[in-house]
Amino acid sequence: MQKIKIISDSACDLSLETAKEHNIGILPSRVIYKNKEYLDKVEISPEQLYASLAEEVPTTSLPNMEYCKNVFDEVKAEGYTDVIVVTVSSKLSGTLNSLKLLAEDYEGLNFSFFDTRTLGYPQGTIALEAAEMVDKGMKVEEILEKLEDVRKRVFGYVVVNTLEYMVRGGRISKIKGTLGEMIHLKPIISSNDEGLLYRFSQSRGRVQSLNKLKKILEEHLEKSPCKVWVLSGDAMEEAKAFFDSFKKNSRVESIALENIGPAMGVHTGPKSLGLSILQLNK
Length: 282
Prior knowledge:
Layout: E1 4-9, H1 16-21, E2 24-27, E3 30-32, E4 37-39, H2 46-52, E5 59-61, H3 65-77, E6 82-87, H4 95-104, E7 110-115, H5 121-135, H6 140-153, E8 154-159, H7 164-168, H8 174-182, E9 185-191, E10 197-204, H9 206-223, E11 226-233, H10 236-246, E12 252-259, H11 262-268, E13 272-279
Helix pairs in contact: 5-6
């Protein structure tokens, strides 16, 4: 009989509390400063990350493989037979390939991997759906098949307040970033079917960009009821206002307010506000 564990890397942006509640193992990315590195969410909080950005912008890297092996050892010791690893897009990170290599030399567990082709809380949304399927008693093969459908119904968007951090992370060129800053462009970033980030739309000024984000959610709700997660990257006041404007919408099946974590916040920067949306088959 299969006993299945869902594991995701911390690019999924689930809080450790949410992950524990849903029995999802987390492999933390590394947040690297000049003199020290931290395990995402384990050793550094979103508040600490955003407070430090004025002094130094860290880099991020893959989860530590020794740490990952220890997690796998714990899972094995708990009697699990199968692991489904729900990963950040393989087009944006080497995490998937590294974990596959680690699993090749690991005995005692059957590993399956699911490339979400996204990152951040949309990745976390897919991991949550996978955990729910485990609770329903579904088998590995059935879960992997259904996750393909889930992936098509998950959408993520984030408004960045400045292009500086996307330039630093190599997501856009320095020239485009400078020009964007000069005319106060606030892009809304999403991921495409291939798992790459792209500029979904852009507005001039903060107010217009947040209004555009509201319109995007309204368009999704017109198509079907949705589960919604409002994501704050050091923008909690605006995120709460956004949350409040939709919490009584009859088409919103559920809505939650979450943080953009340290590893993701390195790239989106402070004062970012995002959405993860799961369209429901109703």
